[in-house]
Amino acid sequence: MFMNNYFYYLFQAQAKELDTDYNRLRQQYARLSSEHTTLNNQQKRNFQLYKEQKANEIASLDGKNASIFTVKECSALGVKLN
Fold this sequence. Notes:
Blueprint: H1 2-60, H2 71-76
């Protein structure tokens, strides 16, 4: 009987510890997920601003200076090359 009670309380303590760990990890996941979403949105916004800046730079150049941009940059910005 004593051993049964011992194991019962031992398992109960382990279950409580696991539950605490699980809740801590769930909170950490929620925080990291939120941070990831924030950083992803900032990255998208920064890329959009970059594209707009490059498009404005291309629009302000005459034909002979347009070659300072790579084909990949122009393509990403939707600029058609002759």
